[in-house]
Amino acid sequence: MNLRKIFGLNLQRLRRERRLSQEQLAHLAGCARAYLSGAEAGRRNATLDILEALATVLEVEPADLLKDPGTRPETR
């Protein structure tokens, strides 16, 4: 799975968990709703500024938006 698709899946999951519409999240993060739609579909790249803004609104670390949802945490 490519990074854009992973980002999109994580973005959509976190947005829905917080019960935000694309319009609401876009407003809070300072980007366009069309950008979020494309990002969730894996068609748009994120700048570091947008990644940070989305993570802040969603109350996660920026890296959480880029983690492969199929990856299991490492055990020691």
UniProtKB/TrEMBL annotation:
MF terms (GO), sorted A to Z: DNA binding; DNA-binding transcription factor activity
GO cellular component: cytosol
Keyword terms of this UniProt record: DNA-binding
Annotated ranges, domain HTH cro/C1-type: 11-65
Protein name per its UniProtKB record: Helix-turn-helix transcriptional regulator
Organism listed in the record: Aminobacter anthyllidis
Lineage, uppermost ranks: Bacteria, Pseudomonadati, Pseudomonadota, Alphaproteobacteria, Hyphomicrobiales
